Amino acid sequence: MEYKRIKRYFDIIFSLLGLVILLPLFVVISIAVRLESKGPIIYKQPRLGLNGRVFTMYKFRSMIIGAEKEGVYEKKGDNRVTNVGKFIRLTSIDELPQLINIFKGDMSFIGPRPPLTYHPWKFNEYTIMQRKRFSVLPGITGWAQVNGRKDLDWNIRIELDNEYVNKISFLFDIKILLLTLIKGLTMSNNLNIEETVKSKAEKMSLKLMYITNDEAIAKIAENSGVDWIFIDLEIIGKEKRQGHLDTVISHHEREDVKKIKNILSQAKIIVRVNPIHPDSENEINQIIEYGADIIMLPYFKTQKEVEYFIRLVGGRVKTCLLCETPEAVENIDSILSVSGIDYMYIGLNDLHLGYKMNFMFYLLADGTVESLCDKFRAKGIPFGFGGIARLKHGTLPAEYIIREFYRLGSSMVILSRSFCNANEILQYDMIEKVFKEGVLEIRTFEEKILTKDYSYFAKNQRILKKKVIQIENILKRQKEII
Known about the structure:
elongated, TIM Barrel, eight-stranded parallel beta barrel, about 10% strand, 19 helices, 2 domains
């Protein structure tokens, strides 16, 4: 039986024991609260619980009636806090009524603290990755509480909560419990003084990229809602690596950057240069002069290559690293230590070849992409991976991939050649129709899934993994037959 299920039995047994054993203390605190100030003994407050469900959390009342009108957090010298309230807050005794919440199944002893329904954000304002913290029962104490609690930015607290969700185990819970007892005995960081440090969560919307050097198509893409026009200069070594695949080598020219820049009004230009080579400095200088907004370095393997690239760009435009070699994955920690990286992108095509896989999205199934995304997110670097066709199209339908983007916190994606194959659709009016319909489908789908809780995306992950493994096995068998 998995620990999450056993944990619920522990919660029921120990919360009931706690309520029985601590009954005399409950009586004493109740009398003290009532004697000092008028009002209810128990303070009831709506909180966000499992999967964002609102429940009523109980505490011993420590403030005068109506105190919440001036804010829910204690201020230095706050005269709203009663004398009894100061003591029970300092010792965390005010949290004891939450044993009732635990017994009822609203909470657990250990887990992410349940936030207010409106602070730091409403539930639908959390990003999908942040909603992961709501996939387990909230707790009286948690990993964020023993690692800084109120001193932490909310985004950092949520990262710690997500770390708990990933590592949840009996031993981890025991560790948190012991650290909580130590902090409680020393009365360290027990007071909720001032409002928690917070950063506003950004409502997610994928940045869409499309590869073209055709002015008319670039303008159509921009008018349809594509955020970045992708100029692809990479040619060195690409034919050798990908010549046997159904991929396109763009053969764009440096002058295309200037040409496309002149017709765009909103979309940015991202330029993929060649891997580091003797003429890299001249290449980078020229495309910056021609108007590139973002420069992408492909097929790097070492920290030194990245440092050299960052030095060549010199902060004049944004930088993006295309992580697409097994060596880059192996060296990713040292690579991410380099300052000046603005974006990261995982190139599934070359990376799956480097690992000798048959299907590029197998990197989603084996955990490689998720591990990299965790590292990018921890560094606060926006990232993306792979490419997508139109919804309901492609070997792996785009819906499954987009849901995975949201689960992992990815913020950008390339619209693949199969999204709109300009080599096959020769009329610009037909290309415009494909773009407008396709981008609208994606944006509508994004709005729909933004309301979902994390369990929705976890289920999609399981289905996607199964589909990817099936496709990988089919391609492997076909390869063996050939």
